[in-house]
Amino acid sequence: QVQVVESGGGVVQPGGSLRLSCAVSGITFSSTAMSWYRQGPGKERELVATITRAGGITNYEDSVKGRFTISRDNAKNTVYLQMNSLKPEDTAMYYCKARTYVGYIYWGQGTQVTVSS
After folding, report:
1. 37 or 41: which carries more pLDDT confidence?
2. In this structure, are residues 79 and 24 in contact, taking their beta carbons and an 8 Å threshold?
3. What is the DSSP string of 36-74?
């Protein structure tokens, strides 16, 4: 059975940092493209960052470019989102999405990030 489990969320002051982790099991992680999404209060879910199967290509939503970094460790079946210079508008539930080589999609349950002084 496939499991996608996020962790690392919390409450942080503006300008602070957090690192989110997403552990995947039950699928061939190295063949899976990974993404982070977020959904803020009263907002639609939006794509934050993506990383290809081998990690060679990453893409970011404009508002997080230069502040967030997505990476993956295929030996640990884990993808990360390093978030620096956090702003109150980054407050959201952050979700991890796995998309397999044949197109199956799996979501995690989310981890809450709150940026507040």
Report:
1. 37
2. yes
3. EEEE-TTS--EEEEEE-TTS--EEE-GGGTTTEEEEEET
Give bridge partners of residue 94 from the DSSP assignment. 38, 111
By CB neighbour count within 10 A (0-12 exposed, 13-18 middle, 19+ buried), where does 4 fall?
buried
- CA–chain centroid gap for 7, Å, is 10
C-beta contacts of 67-76 below 8 A and 24+ residues apart: 70/34, 70/36, 72/34, 74/29, 74/30, 76/23
Asked if the model's pLDDT at residue 113 lies above 90, the reply is yes
Burial class (CB in 10 A: 0-12, 13-18, 19+), 89: exposed
Whose tokens are 């699928």? That residue is 27
Pairing verdict, β 18-25 and 3-7: antiparallel
43 in Cβ contact with 63 (< 8 Å)? no
- Model confidence pLDDT, tens digit, residues 50-87: 999 887 899 999 999 999 999 999 999 999 999 999 99
